[in-house]
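Retro notes (design track)

What went well: tokenization of the new backbones is finally stable.
What didn't: we kept losing track of which sequence belonged to which structure.
Fix going forward: every design gets posted as structure first, then sequence, in one message. First example under the new rule, 336 residues:
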């Protein structure tokens, strides 16, 4: 149970990054300096996006207002989907790992010395027969991630998440950035009466949560003002975590697919598999659209989130490769 308690604590701490950065800034930095740096960083991002032709956030928000609407949905999606989907996904792979560990005695370990033609990574079989891996499984990750058992996969995926979040909290502390919705805001004050907005007339962003509200919170709620870092925009954790969730489900689906090459046992299994993969890919795209049209992030924030996630994934693959020898002993050293 020490393993479970440790994992719960680590994951819980990872969801406090915004609060940690808010505590740091409120206790160790002068607010006016904090705000000036955040404003400068936001304006620098605007210039970078204009240089690369990526500054389309205002136009996209205007188009969404005129053609789509549904701001209660978008605002509530922004407020709730990020933590809820992430928590459910991480809990799922944790429970899956625990279930695999506790039922491990039902499996037979196949040693490579006995079957020289088996994959070099850990493989588990019920009857000792050789599992025929599809080409896409062999190529999906160079470090054989899809061949790891559920416990090994959980540790690998958990490492990606924790490393990404750790990097992002340093971004919130060292690179405070004013979100688009505050650039032209002149009437939003924090709990100490300090103006949070930049009051810059050259922008026309709309704070959709402030104007239309959400089902979960308002920026002017006292608890939000005390605990939230208003300039925690770079990187976008919404984009980062949404892409992470997609990675988790893609790894899970390909690891558990019954396909051989491109052949499925039935059309239903093919449709179900394809639908779930499509949903996994669609989720970060929908989240990206949401964070832009609600004016909570620049596209640059999302790009940095994806970059951090990619770096964390590569580093986790490096750790996986370095620790492959110790992973091979997991069947004897179960955490529960």
């Amino acid at each position: 149970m020490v393993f479970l308690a440790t994992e719960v604590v680590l994951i819980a701490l990872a969801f406090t990054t915004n609060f940690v950065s808010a505590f740091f800034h409120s206790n160790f930095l002068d607010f006016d300096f904090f705000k000036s740096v955040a404003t400068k960083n936001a304006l620098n991002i605007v210039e970078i996006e204009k240089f690369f032709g990526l500054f389309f956030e205002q136009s996209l928000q205007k188009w969404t207002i005129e053609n789509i609407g549904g701001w209660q949905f978008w605002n509530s999606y922004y407020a709730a989907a990020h933590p809820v989907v992430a928590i459910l996904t991480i809990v799922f792979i944790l429970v899956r790992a625990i279930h695999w560990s506790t039922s491990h005695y039902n499996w037979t370990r196949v040693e490579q010395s006995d079957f020289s033609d088996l994959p070099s990574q850990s493989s588990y079989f019920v009857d000792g027969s050789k599992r025929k891996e599809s080409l896409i499984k062999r190529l999906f990750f160079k470090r054989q991630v899809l061949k790891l058992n559920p416990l090994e996969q959980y540790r690998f995926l958990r490492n990606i998440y924790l490393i990404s979040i750790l990097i992002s909290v340093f971004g919130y502390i060292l690179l405070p950035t004013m979100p688009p919705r505050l650039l032209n805001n002149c009437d939003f004050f924090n709990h100490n009466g300090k103006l949070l907005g930049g009051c810059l007339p050259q922008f026309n962003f709309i704070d959709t949560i402030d104007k239309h509200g959400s089902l979960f919170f308002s920026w002017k709620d006292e608890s939000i003002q005390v605990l939230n870092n208003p300039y925690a925009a770079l990187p976008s954790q919404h984009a980062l975590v949404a892409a992470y969730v997609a990675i988790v489900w893609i790894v899970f689906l390909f690891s558990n697919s019954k396909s051989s090459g491109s052949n499925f046992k039935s059309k239903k299994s093919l449709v179900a598999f394809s639908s779930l993969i499509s949903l996994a890919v669609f989720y970060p795209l929908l989240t990206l659209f949401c964070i832009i049209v609600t004016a909570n992030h620049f596209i640059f924030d999302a790009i940095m989130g994806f970059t951090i996630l990619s770096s964390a994934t590569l580093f986790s693959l490096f750790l996986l490769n370095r620790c492959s020898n110790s992973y091979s002993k997991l069947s004897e050293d179960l955490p529960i």
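Added context from the reviewer: The first helix runs from residue 2 to 14.
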